[in-house]
Amino acid sequence: MLVSEDEARALAARGYRLEAVEELPSLGAVLMRASTSVAGDIGDAEAAVRRDAPDADIDYNHLYVYHPASAGPSPKGVAPRAAMKVGAAETGRGLKIGVIDTRVDAAHEALSGAALTVSDFVPYDAPRPGDHGTSVVSIIAGRSASFEGLAPDAEIYEASVFFAAPDGGVSATTESIVKAIDWLAAHDVSVINLSLAGPPNEILKGAVARANERGIAIVAAVGNEGPAARPLYPAAYDGVIGVTAVASDKRVYRLANRGGQVDFAAPGVDVLHADDRGGYSAASGTSFAAPFVTAVLAAAGRNGRLDAGALKRLEESAEDLGEAGRDPVYGAGLIRPLGE
After folding, report:
1. Domain with 170 in it: what CATH number?
2. How many domains does the chain have?
């Protein structure tokens, strides 16, 4: 559960057995597990907690996943700066961007010179994959002799939250993601990229709302489960900017989720990126479109924050695709950097 500091003290005083109490000072909250002496099922226990802490965000420790990056090296693919027009002088200097993803291969030639600060939030002794996070971060801040991301001089704060289970599945817990949001807020990032998706969760929703209150923009991939799929989270939350993927011909990625949660479209088909094998690959999916929007939003902010006026200008300047006006396939349209 996610509670205020006062509610945490009140629960302790009323005899709840508090486990794994974690203060989240940047979000002004406490994350914890609690057990009670209430007999009955979990619903009874939840009802008891809600009586004593009515404003608490209570939910399961749900798992979130990502769309895997490409399976192997590829000589093809559209480089980030070819997919989106970014001025040569726009390097992201002075920007602070947060990414919550897998571990990153910081030794990759495209990332070895990046202003990259990393921290691990996986609570288990389990393997940490490095494919997806390496891809996403390189699209934003990669740089080598043959590759350049959208904002190579930006300061990147990367939180590793994914682990590999014995059955081969890769996922991240709600707890890890929420702790990562608090850590990124402490580093005063302006935007957080979440190229992951999963079920609705009240604790994650509460953390997102608290980050928004601090002026931090949250960008999330809408998911790759197909046009008829249910909305995925956190992209479907109010206060989160949901991103779909389009190809170079501006057609939507065939597996992208659709609905009112789509706010912007961005390049996300056959996007070239650094991989965790030391080379470069091309991949498709909303995961790889989200960092384009993250980079644009970070550059559009003032004094390290994206205000409502800047977001409105980005919506108005987006290239309208599909049906006239905002629609469930492309949202406001293909995002463009301000001043393009």
Report:
1. 3.40.50.200
2. 2
pTM score of the predicted model: 0.94
Going by C-alpha positions, the residue among 167, 108, 96, 153 that lies closest to residue 133 is 108
Do residues 39 and 88 both lie within one domain?
no
Whether 175 maps to a domain, the answer reads: yes
Tens-digit pLDDT string for the chain (340 aa): 999 888 888 888 887 777 778 999 999 999 987 655 544 566 777 787 888 888 899 999 999 999 876 555 555 899 999 999 988 778 999 999 999 999 999 999 999 999 999 999 999 999 999 999 999 999 999 999 999 999 999 999 999 999 999 888 999 999 999 999 999 999 999 999 999 999 999 999 999 999 999 999 999 999 999 999 999 999 999 999 999 999 999 999 999 999 999 999 999 999 999 999 999 999 999 999 999 999 999 999 876 788 889 999 999 999 999 999 999 999 999 999 987 6
Task: Looking at the structure, tell me whether residues 201 and 99 fall in a common domain.
Answer: yes
- Domain co-membership, 126 together with 243: yes
Which residues make beta-bridge pairs with 57?
2
Q: Are the CB atoms for 280 and 258 separated by under 8 Å? A: no
289 shares a domain with 163: yes
281 with 149, same domain: the answer is: yes
Residue 48 structural domain = 2-52
- Kindly report the number of other CB atoms within 10 A of residue 50's CB atom: 13
